[in-house]
Fold each of these.
Amino acid sequence: MKLIKDFFLAFCLLFLTSCNPNQPQKAEEFVSDAEPTIVYTGTDQEKIQQIIAEIPDVEEPSLDLVYATSLTALPLSCIDRPQKQSDYKGYLYEGSVKIKPAYEDSLSFYGCYDWHSAVNSTWTMVRLYKEYPDMILGGLIEEKLDNHLSEGSLQGELKFFEEIASGGFERPYGWAWYLYLYDEISSLDHEKAEDWSNAMKPLADYFAKKTIPYLENMDYPMRVGTHGNTAYSLDLMHKYAESAKNDSLLDAINTHSIRFFGDDEQCPAFYEPSGSDFLSPCLAEAVLMSSVLPRDEFYKWFNAFMPAPYDPAFSSLKELPEIMFEKEGADEPDDTKEGSESEEDEHDLMGAKSHLVGLAFYRASAFNRLAEVLPDNDPRKELYKKLANYHGKEGFDSLYKTDYLGTHWLGTFAVLYLETLGNQNSASK
C-alpha cells in the first residue's frame, strides 16, 4: 500500500512540475525534425501550380562588380548632400534657414534627404564594399566612413538624441536602421572597422535600451506600409539583437512580437497597397514572425495568417504595384509655373511613386525570405520564389525613373532583395 502511495505522490509531483507556468521552455524544445503536414494538397496544389504557370518567367538577377559599383554610386552621391529643411527643428537646422556651423564634424547622418535615409544609405555602401572590397570606389567609401563614423561625429549624434531630440524622433524606423548598420560594421573585415564600430556603439546601446520601454508601452502595433510599420523595424532590430547577443532586447522583441501578432489570422492583403506604401504590412509581419517563432510553430501560425494563393485576398500581392511615371497624352510642363502648387503636387507624386518602386523590391525580398523557411514540399515555396523575381524585375526596371526622391534610398532596398538570392558570392567569383 505504501508503494502505491509513494508512486501516486511521485506522479503528482512530476505532473505539477511539468505544468509549472514559471518553468521556462527553450524554443528548441518545440522544434520537430519531422516535416510538417502540408496543408495544400490535391486540387489545392493544382490551383497553385496553375497560378505559378500564369506568372511571367523572369530571369533571376545577379550582383556582379559592375552593378555593385553602380548601386554604390547612389549613396555616394547623397551621403554629403545636406538634407532638405525639415519640419523637425534642431538636428541640422538651428532656425528657419540657418544651418549649424561645422555640422560635418559634429554629425554623421546629415545627407541623403533625411536622417534614416542617410543611415540606410551608409549601410548600402558598407554591404556592397563588404561584398567587393576591391571595387574602384573602395577608397572613397573608406574616406566617407572615416568622416561620417568618426568618434566626434557620433558623439554629436548621441548628444543630439540625449539632449535635444524628442523621444519619437526617427523611432522606430531610423533607430532600427542604425542598429542594422552597426551590426554590418561590426562584422566588416577592415582594419578600421573596430574604430568605426566603437564610435557607433554608445548610440547603438542608447537605442537598444530605449526600445525596450517603447515596446512595453505600446498597446497596439502599427500595421502600415510606411516608416511607422512595427514589424519591419522589429525585424531589423532582431538581427542586431542576435548578433550583439543583447538578450534583453531580443527577449523584448520576441515577447512583444508574439503579443502584437501571435493571434493574427487571415491578413487582409486585399487592402494593399495604399498610394505611397513601400512595405507590405502582411508580408512584413510574416517575415518578422518567421524569425521570432520556432520553425514548426511559425508554419502553423503562417497557414492561419496568410491567405491561400488562390484566395482573392491574396491577389493584390501577386500583382505589380501600378507605377505611372508618365501619362500618355499629358500636357507638356509649363515652365512658368515653377514653385507653383502644381509643381509641389508633382514633387509629392514622385515621392509616392518612388515608394511603390520600393514596394516592388520589398515584396521581392519578403517572398524570398518566406520561401526559405517553407518546407520543400510546400507548393507555395516555388510560387513565392517566382513572385520574388517578378516583383524584383519591376523594381530594377523602375529604379532610375524616380529622380533624387527615389535614388537616394532605393539602392538599399535593391540590395536587400539581392541579398535574399544568395548568389552574390557566386557572381563575384
Amino acid sequence: MRLTDGGLETSLIFHQGWDLPLFAAFPLLERDGGKAALESYWQPYLEVADRHGTGFVVDTVTWRANPDWAGRLGYDAPALHAANVAAAGFARHLAGHLRGSATVNGVVGPRGDGYVVGVEMSPDEAEAYHRPQVASLAEGGVDQVAAITLTYPGEATGFLRAAEAVGVPAVVSFTVETDGRLPNGDALRDAVMAVDHATDGTAAGFMVNCAHPTHVADAFVDGDWLGRVTGLRANASTMSHAELDAAEELDAGDPDDLARRYRELLGRLPALELVGGCCGTDDRHVAAIAAACLPAGGR
C-alpha cells in the first residue's frame, strides 16, 4: 500500500496563511516564497513514507489548472500549458527527496465546482475540455494523471478518453455526499460501473475523495466493482459539502478516529492500495492512517 498527502489547499490557507483565490495552488509556483511553502508542506508526508518504507504518490498542484478556472485568474492557453508543465517538474523534484518508490501524479480537477455539479458535459465535451491539460502534464513528465473530485460519470468518461488519446495511465476519483451518492445523485457503484462500461475498463483504478469515511461506508457494499476501488482520500470533517463551503474555520476532526475508520474499510476494499487525506487533513492524519493501515500498523 502506498501513501499520498492530505489537504493541500486547506493546509496552505489555514496552517500557512496563504491566500489562494479560487482555491488554486498552482500560482504559488510563480509567487515569492511559494515553492518554499510547498516544500514545507510536503516534507512531513515524505518523512512518513520513508519511516514506513512505503511508496508515495506526489501530486502536481494543478487541481484548478484547467481553462475555466485558470482563465478567471488571468491565464491564457500558453501560460496555462507552461504552468502545468512546471508543476509536473516541481512534483518530480519533490519525488527525488524520497528514499522509496515515488509516483508523480498529474492532478486534473473538475470543470465545475467540485461540490456542485452545475452544467454537465457530455463525454465528448469533457474529452475535448480536459485533453489539453492532460497533454501538458504528460509533456511535463508525470507517471499518471488523476481526475480528482469529479461529480458525475460523463466527465470521468471524457477524462479517461483524453488520457487514453494522450497515452498516459489515468485514475478517476469521485466525491460523494453524506448519503454516499455522487452530487448528481448517482450511486457510487453505478457511476464506477457506467464509466468502466463506457471506456472498456481503461481506468487504472477509481478513488473516492473529499468525503468522510462515514459518508462513503454504506456505499461500499458487496460486488465485483469494489475490486476497482484503489484509493481513498477522506476529509477530516464529518460535515457535508454545503457545510464545509460555509465554514469559516477549519474542522480538523480527530486524526486517530479517522485512521480507525480507514482501517475498518480495508476489509471491504480488496484492491485498495493508496491512502491519504483531503480537505482538513494534514500530516498528523496521514501519519495516523499509515500507522493503522500499512503493514507496520498491523495489516
